[in-house]
Amino acid sequence: MWSCVQHRREVQYNFLCPCGRWLSIFASYTNVRKSKILNRESALLPLASLLPFIVATAIQVCWLLHAPYRGFSIMSSYLFMPFFCAWGLQFAHQVGRMILAHVCKTSFPWFHPMWLWSIVGAIDANMPVLVERCVLPFRSPG
Q1: What DSSP state is assigned to residue 43?
Q2: Tens-of-pLDDT digits for all 142 residues of the chain?
Q3: 32-39 own/partner pairs: CB under 8 Å, 24+ apart
Q4: Distance CA 120, CA 122 (A)
């Protein structure tokens, strides 16, 4: 009974969290688009400016939705809360950099080295599917 309820919660979270993020991004773009149209500017550049958020979200979702290895998945482990907090902090950091670039009239931050850690984590979590090797925490020396 417990595993069925826990699995249902995982499925709900895996569906609702990305949906909430996409709705937030869509609402933000709608507001920016209205402003750009009123000022007779291109409404496509703000849409391109959302690309870093889309890429970061895709990386995190690939990491989160990895195939369980030996019964281990982030969703059902003690690593879920640190992962969730890191994801939120990364998103907040991106928003802060975007606001700072807008206020200081500097170039928009398209890439940040912080993504590299997320990419490494997503690749490592999906190693059993990608190259049929076990994930780093389960490798034994020798």
Answers
A1: S
A2: 445 555 556 556 666 677 777 788 788 878 888 888 888 888 787 777 778 888 888 888 888 877 666 666 777 777 778 888 888 888 888 888 888 988 998 887 888 787 888 888 888 777 777 776 665 555 545 4
A3: none
A4: 6
Entry pTM: 0.63
> At which residue do the structure tokens 């690593």 appear?
79
* Cα–Cα dist 25/82, whole Å: 24
**Cα distance between residue 121 and residue 127, in whole Å:** 10
Q: What are phi and psi of 69, to 5 degrees?
A: -120, 120
| CB within 8 Å of 138: residues ≥ 6 apart | 69, 70, 72
